[in-house]
Fold this protein.
Amino acid sequence: MSDLDLLTQSLARNVKRWRTERGFTLDALAARAGVSRGMLIQIEQARTNPSIGTVVKIGDALGISITTLLDYEQGPKVRIVPAEQAVRLWHTEAGSYNRLLAGTEAPGPLEMWDWLLMPGDRSPSDPHPAGTVELVHVTAGDLTLTVDGVKHVVPAGASATFEADTPHTYDNEGDVPVEMVMAVSVPPMR
């Protein structure tokens, strides 16, 4: 494959990826960039080699650099987060904690958390932005999950999912530690 073919394929892949991540339709991106919808279709299908001016307009409309749009990297990007780089954001004197294990933008922020909740500890949360969803999987103990004032018991081995745009609390009302993994998906900013 020639350098020009690689460039055309990379541009096609990256324009489609970033347009999708930003939540733009072809028409919306065309309007923002000041290029035709037909040109965007040809670019995303790797059927044209647009001018540098067109690439700059598309990059500006997506809020990313030309370097990112023309990135040659083949295949999916993989990011390994070593255990010692997990970020502990909350803890109690009793030993409860949560750790942000990994996060990404896909299409909005997506986070994965590791939680340890000691007996008698609780962690309240204010409402998140509308459209935020949380998923929890309990691996040990019984989690008491209160969402909008309603209590739900989630035993070890069970999972729960809920819309997190309302007040919610994670409680350990039992006598053994609760261990759980949680994923949080926040909708992209529009």
Observations:
- The radius of gyration is 22 Å.
